[in-house]
Amino acid sequence: LTGATELTLLCAATDGVAACDALLDELCRTAGGDGAIALELSPPPGLRAEIAALLEKHGFAMTQVGVRLDLDARGEPGERGDDVDLHPMRAEEAGFVRSCLAIAVRRGLAGAECRVDLDDWIARKLPLPPAPDALCLVGCVDGVPVCHALGRLRTAEFAGERVVDVVDTFVLPQWKSRGLSRLATADLLDA
């Protein structure tokens, strides 16, 4: 969005801390120049502190947090409250979802200049009709959209089972702290 080069490495895996250190050395050496390197790592619990120290040593800083919540282990979400109607996004609700995404992206830019037409970029990311692997739920109260959850269906590489990657959840500020994000996410995962 800013025009800067970014090298993104998803699902990085190494054989231990020394191999991770060597990978980070090589990435930093070969990337050079302007831009950024983005990594998605899932270190095993016993190595998280050591991997975090390596990332810091190489100058990496946390910019987003990936978390996993096993909803089965936590039980059912609480009361729906506020008579929330969660349903697949309707064509007339696309503007609401796109405006929520624009707010989130602008926050993520943290003041950096956006070098693309953000509305056009978001429209391409959320095409209508939605892509076959996309899920988008909208929560309405009295017919007015107040939240959404956006995800992508895929097959897990190793387990071969159907999973949903939660891409985004958004709740209007005046509707926060009512459990709507959790409800929308739970419904998305059950879709």
Describe the structure in brief.
The protein is an alpha+beta fold and 191 residues long.
Helical stretch count?
6
Query: Strand pairing plus helix content: what structural class?
Result: alpha+beta
Mean of the pLDDT scores?
78
Helix percent reads 25-40%
Strand order of the largest sheet: 3-4-5-6
Please give the number of β-strands: 6
Overall 3D form? globular
Q: Rg, please?
A: 19 Å
Biggest sheet descriptor = 4 strands, antiparallel
Question: Explain this structure to me?
Answer:
This protein has six helices and six strands. It is an alpha+beta fold and 191 residues long. Strands 3-4-5-6 form a four-stranded antiparallel sheet, sandwiched between helices. The radius of gyration is 19 Å and the shape is globular. The relative contact order is 0.14. Mean pLDDT is 78; it is low at 70-80.
Tags for this entry?
single chain; 191 residues; alpha+beta; four-stranded antiparallel β-sheet; two-stranded parallel ribbon; 6 helices; 34% helix
Provide the fold topology:
Blueprint: E1 6-12, H1 17-31, E2 36-41, H2 48-57, H3 71-74, E3 85-88, H4 94-109, H5 118-125, E4 134-141, E5 144-155, E6 162-171, H6 180-190
Parallel strand pairs: 1-2
Antiparallel strand pairs: 3-4, 4-5, 5-6
Helix pairs in contact: 1-2, 4-5
